[in-house]
Design goal:
The protein is of the alpha+beta class and about 575 residues long. The protein contains 19 helices and 11 strands. Among the domains are: about 5-65 and about 75-135, Butyryl-Coa Dehydrogenase, subunit A, domain 1 (Orthogonal Bundle); about 160-280, Butyryl-CoA Dehydrogenase, subunit A, domain 2, CATH 2.40.110.20; about 435-570, no CATH class.
Length: about 575
């Protein structure tokens, strides 16, 4: 029951639903990228993930990473799989050709990492931050730092980490205490402890690069005093840097990924970017990581769905309601409405979330490369507003959906033999890291919607409403939901002026409401694509319309009740 990526589904969504080849050819770096090339990349990625990465999932969970005397040994097979991954060129898929990359669109890398996570979440944590580190250094690093690190990060020769969290500084990074003391040669000496560092120590590569938030002497307290530094396990000439792995955490899941406590003892490092601009430089990495985490949620949900679907086809139980009498006294449980409801509902989530995530990947490329400044601005608006929605929506569904799919197995799902319980354990962390889902909701409403009075999100929703064919099946409902989300935003903006705490109380419900409105649009796009009116797409679409999208009215009702209360209180 190993995970198997479906390149056919990915091609359908990219080509028929999102018209990705046409959109990408409008961007100068991807003028030669057509459907055939995209299909070849996806086909090869599916083969590699299915053959090399998926079979290691169970052993990674059972044996896990091993810590001894400051060193970490990865589970059996992990190092060989990473070597094959690097030699095949997968780390450099979306990196620029001048840095040794293949120069392909980000959306292809996004699909690859979705599949890698579905196949083996623990293993995928190792290369998962490569592209974020690459983008951060490319945009903010000096020429000397780029010459030393960029090519090795792009190729995957050296893996990378992101060192933010400290024992006293989690979501509030303004509390970071790690110090960086400047030296006469232009370097700095890092001292401090960082926790929750994925892949902080391992035996997959000869060297490990760390991007570290720290404070220079005399820097102001709070987030404005933070700068970003780059350091590595080994310095030039093979000299061991003063970085110590104190331990790895014993975790609920992700046993194949070492989550490290790192202690920096006057470690040699170099500043990346301007003093006091560490958070802005790091957020280049964080935003890429958040979109990757969203796709982790989709990959884990798909992996759980594949297992549940396969089991439901084979498991025989009592005759399904309405089944014709025959010699058999039992039917496969997939014929039972209770099981089919679970499978169709989660399948509807998987397909809709994929459309939103792949569309965001295409917009990310447009924001970077489109020749028209207005088009770049609208694409950046989409990425800024939708990334926190996706991170929260996809991971919430990845964890919750995996738990619901475990139900298909009954008691067998609760034992390790069938593998579904691992997905439930592994998926839970995605709601927490790279900014908890509560922080994503606050980021959306408080930092991105309220400052411009909701103008940006309303413009985005209006554009989607205009994209909807109101005469198509459920088109009027989809358009009405998007228009109502605009009105809901206006009401929330007005009420927030009367009560300062309201946005923080309503943020989770608002993010969920926007996410459901976007899901309706995504499935409208799927439904009007050629070939989607029949076959496997019909059951999930029906389940989405019946069991998922009605939640929008509930969330909107909660928010409107809070807005009314805020108005009454102000009066």
């Amino acid at each position: 029951m190993d995970y198997r990526p479906d390149a056919g589904d990915a091609r359908f969504l990219l080509e028929q639903v999102l018209d990705a080849p046409t959109r990408l050819r409008a961007l100068a770096p991807f003028a030669e990228v057509d459907a055939d090339l995209m299909g070849q990349v996806l086909d090869e990625a599916a083969k590699f993930v299915g053959a090399e990465i998926a079979p290691l999932n169970a052993v990674g969970d059972a044996i896990g990473a091993h810590f001894e005397a400051g060193t970490v040994t990865m589970p059996p097979g992990f190092a060989d799989a990473y070597k094959a991954f690097r030699e095949a060129g997968w780390p450099s898929l979306a990196c620029a050709p001048e840095d040794g990359g293949q120069g392909l669109p980000w959306v292809l890398e996004g699909v690859l990492y979705e599949w890698l996570t579905g196949a083996n979440h623990g293993w995928t944590m190792a290369p998962g931050l490569l592209h974020g580190a690459y983008e951060c250094l490319k945009h903010h690093g000096s020429e000397a730092l780029k010459a030393r690190y960029l090519g090795r990060i792009a190729s995957g020769e050296w893996l990378a980490t992101m060192c933010l969290t400290e024992p006293q500084a989690g979501s509030d990074l303004g509390l970071v205490r790690t110090q960086a003391v400047p030296q006469a040669d232009g370097s700095h000496r890092l001292s401090g402890t960082k926790i929750f560092i994925s892949g902080g120590e391992h035996d997959l590569t000869d060297n490990i690069v760390h991007l570290v938030l720290a404070r220079e002497p005399g820097a102001p307290l709070g987030p404005k005093g933070l700068s970003l530094f780059i350091t590595s396990k080994f310095l030039d000439g093979g000299v061991r840097n003063a970085i110590v792995c104190e331990r790895i955490e014993e975790k609920m899941g992700l046993h194949g990924s070492p989550t490290c406590v790192l202690r920096f003892e006057d470690a040699t490092a170099w500043r990346v970017g301007e003093p006091g601009r560490g958070l802005s430089a790091m957020f280049v990495m964080m935003n890429a990581a958040r979109l990757h985490v969203a796709l982790q949620g989709v990959g884990l949900l798909d992996a759980a769905w594949q297992k549940a679907h396969a089991y439901a086809q084979e498991r025989l139980q009592m005759r399904a309601p309405g089944a014709a009498r025959s010699a058999a006294e039992a039917d496969p449980i997939i014929r039972h409405p209770a099981v089919q409801r679970i499978l169709d509902t989660e399948r509807g989530w998987i397909d809709g979330l994929r459309v939103l995530a792949y569309h965001t990947g295409l917009e990310l490329d447009a924001a970077r490369h489109h020749a028209d400044a207005g088009r770049r601005q609208s694409a950046q608006r989409w990425c800024s507003l939708v990334t926190p929605v996706l991170k929260a929506l996809c991971t919430e569904q990845g964890a919750g959906g995996a738990s619901r799919l475990l139900q298909v197995f009954g008691g067998h799902g609760y034992v390790r033999e069938w593998g579904i319980e691992q997905h439930v354990r592994d998926a839970r962390i995605t709601l927490i890291y790279e900014g908890t889902n509560e922080i994503q909701a606050i980021d959306l409403l408080v930092r991105k919607v309220l400052p411009d009075g909701g103008a940006g999100i309303q413009a985005l929703l209006q554009e989607l409403a205009q994209d909807v064919d109101a005469l198509a099946d459920h088109g009027a409902d989809t358009a009405a939901r998007l228009q109502d989300a605009c009105r809901l935003t206006q009401e929330l903006v007005r009420a927030s002026r009367a009560r300062a705490a309201l946005p923080f109380e309503a943020a989770d419900d608002y993010l969920r409401a926007i996410g459901l409105a976007l899901m309706g649009w995504a499935w409208h796009r799927i439904a009007r694509a050629p070939g989607a009116a029949q076959g496997r797409w019909t059951g999930p679409r029906h389940a989405l319309d019946l069991r998922v999208l009605p939640e929008y009215a509930m969330r909107a009702g909660i928010i409107r009740t809070q807005c009314s209360a805020a108005g009454a209180q102000a009066a």
